[in-house]
Structures are given as structure tokens and as C-alpha cells.
Write a structure and sequence with these properties.
Layout (H helix, E strand, L loop, with lengths): L1 E2 H4 L17 E2 L6 E5 L3 E5 L5 H5 L2 H4 L5 H5 L10 H7 L7 E5 L5 H4 L9 E3 L2 H12 L12
């Protein structure tokens, strides 16, 4: 479930005669793709969101990001999460040999850690942006990643 105002730009915006519009909650499909290739075994494209990422991680500890867990209180039911769905396909986590992550947002990449043995691919600019977002603080405005 999620607030459509977070997902669709200018969806039901605040206006002068309605400064507190109703929020519209919607079930949000969260997907990833499994692809079989004989040389690299199973490829996983994106990893869906993780309840761990919402409930226990940086996202809920950082004041500026707490709204992620309050605006998306139930990303999905546990039976619908990636490990359970892979098991329905008779796949184990270690069967995934390669991962391609479209971008490093919570709803696309928060299960990457479940696949420590997989080769991982993500666009360099997106990785740099994600690292800057995580490691930038009030006292440190940038990080030199080339060292």
C-alpha cells in the first residue's frame, strides 16, 4: 500500500481552497524478473522492497527519511516477498548468479544483501548518488570515492 501522492507527481495536490486534500491509498505492484541464461545461471532484475529495509534500517532511523515507513506502512505481505516467491519457483537464493539493479531506490534494491554470491550490476552514476545520499552529513558535504 502506498499514497499515490508520493508516486505520481502532482497527484491530488494541495490548492488554495483545499490545503489538506484526501490521500488516496493504493495497492502498488512490486515486481522483479528472473531470467535464465545457461552460462551465468539465474539472473535477477531488481529485488523488490524488503520489510527489513523499512522496519529496521537506515530508512527508519534517519529523521528526514522516516516518512518512507509511515507513508508506505505495508509494502507487501510476507508471503508475497521475494524469498517466498522464489521458493514457489523452486529456486533458492544461492541459485541467483547475477543481479541487475535498475536503480538503488528502496523498492528496487533493498534485497540485494540476500544474494552475497551473485555478481551485481548497477549504473555507476546511480551508485555514486546512493552513496552520497547515505554518507553525506551536515559536517561532510561529499565523499571521495576514488581513494
Amino acid at each position: 500500500m502506498g499514497d499515490l501522492g508520493w508516486l505520481i507527481s502532482m497527484y491530488n495536490p494541495t490548492v488554495m481552497n483545499n490545503t489538506n486534500p484526501d490521500r488516496i491509498w493504493q495497492k502498488i505492484p512490486l515486481i522483479c524478473f528472473q531470467i535464465y541464461h545457461p552460462e551465468v545461471r539465474w539472473i535477477l532484475y531488481d529485488t523488490e522492497p524488503s520489510l527489513r529495509a523499512v522496519e529496521q534500517s537506515y530508512w527508519t532511523q534517519n529523521e528526514t527519511r522516516k516518512n518512507i515507513s509511515t507513508n508506505f506502512p505495508s509494502l507487501s505481505m510476507k508471503v508475497e516477498l521475494l524469498p517466498a516467491r522464489l521458493a514457489k519457483l523452486h529456486l533458492k537464493l544461492e541459485d541467483i548468479g547475477t543481479m541487475v539493479v535498475s536503480h538503488l531506490h528502496l523498492d528496487h534494491a533493498s534485497n540485494v544483501d540476500l544474494f552475497p554470491g551473485a555478481e551485481k550490476y548497477v549504473h555507476r552514476a546511480d551508485l555514486t548518488n546512493a552513496l552520497l545520499s547515505v554518507y553525506q552529513t551536515r559536517t561532510r558535504s561529499h565523499v571521495d570515492f576514488d581513494r
